[in-house]
Please model this.
Amino acid sequence: MSNVSELKVPDIGDFSEVEVIEILVSVGDTIKAEQSLVTVESDKSSMEIPAAAGGVVKAIKVKVGDKVSEGTPLVEIEAAGGAEAPQREAAPAKAEAPAAKQEAAPQAAPAAAPAQGGG
Model:
């Protein structure tokens, strides 16, 4: 089984195609999950497309100026650690995605009530 997956153009909304305006990685680069790999642009906005998982860039299937549509292969990625890589479309990166921070809320343990002398 192959451990290489293709990063494809995700749902791009109301547009039939968008233009590749920037390629942020090169063949041989080691990437992390959620790292932006390609930037595409429509008439109204640009969007960075992140990696679904970490690994090594094996091939870049597009070049700057290409017009791409949903499902178009962008980059081939070999999974880190040789694990079987799922073949799926990446979720689009949000312009300002809120950081999912888990803040430790102070939890006061209920103190044992002191024994009252009863008797």
Residues 4-82 form a domain with the OB fold (Dihydrolipoamide Acetyltransferase, E2P) fold (CATH 2.40.50.100). DSSP finds no helices and eight strands in the chain. The first strand starts at residue 4 and ends at 8.
